[in-house]
Amino acid sequence: MSEDPASSRQSSRNQDKTWINRLMSGFSSEPKSREDLINIIKEAAANQLLDDEAVSMIEGAIDVHERQVREVMVPRSQMVVIGIEETPEQLLPTVIESAHSRFPVIGESADDIKGILLAKDLLPLILNGTEDFTLEKVIRPASIIPESKRLNVLLREFRENRYHMALVIDEYGAIAGLVTIEDVLEKIVGDIEDETDEEDEDGFIRKVSDNEYVIKALLPIDQFNDEFGAKFDDNEFDTIAGILIRAFGHLPSRNEHVEIDGFEFRVLYADSRQIHLIRLTIPES
Prior knowledge:
By secondary structure, the chain is an alpha+beta fold. It is 37% helix and 20% strand. β8 (205-209) and β9 form a beta hairpin.
C-alpha cells in the first residue's frame, strides 16, 4: 500500500519543526562555549536546515569575534608604500603594477606615516597634468590601530567611520603592517577575488631574506621540491599543507613551527579550516 501524499508531507513538516525546535532550544539554553554553538549549527546543517556555505560564514563570523588584527594583517615587509617626496612619474608605476586602491604614504621610514593615498585621487592628473602636484595635497589621514584589536571591533569601526584601511602598530609603537576591510571580510566569507587578482596556478613563493621565504600552504609539493631541492613524497599529499598537517598531527595555529628534513616551517596565518601562509627557513647549505 502506497503512503498517502498528504500524510507524507505532514510527516516531513513535523520533522522539520522538530529540528527547528531543537535548534531554537539549543540557542535558548545558552551554549556554554564556542564549541557548543558550532555543534548546534553543524547539527542543523546535517539536517539540511543550513547549507555548507551558510555554516562556513557563521563559523567565520564567530571566528572574527575571537581573532586579533595581527592574525590577518599584511606584514610590514609586504606593504606597498609611496614616499611623500615621490613625483607622479615615480609613484605611478608602483600604483599601476600593484593594482591596489590604497597606499600608505611614508616619510623617512615605514614608521613615519604621513597619510593614505587613494588611487582614485590621482585621476585629476589626467586633466590637470603633473605641474604643481604634491602628495601632501591629496593624501588622507591614516588610521593607526594596535595589532591586538579584535577583528569584530575593527569591522565596526570600518563601517562607522567609513574608512577601508588602517596601519597596525606593535607594542613598541612601530609599524607592524596594515589591514583592510577586505582582510576582515575574507575571514567571514572566504577569499574575495576581483578583476585585478591574477590566477596563481604555480603557487606563491616570496623571498624575504637569503634563506627565508613566505609561501602559500597550497603550494604543490613537486614545485616545492623543484624550487628548494627537497625530496618530499607527493604520493599521499598534493600540497605542502598536507605535509605540515601530518607533521604537526593536527591543524596548527599561528606561530606553531616544525622542522622537516632540515626545512623549518612556521605558520603565519591559519584559520579553523586550513593553513594559508607559511614562513619557510631553508638549510643554509
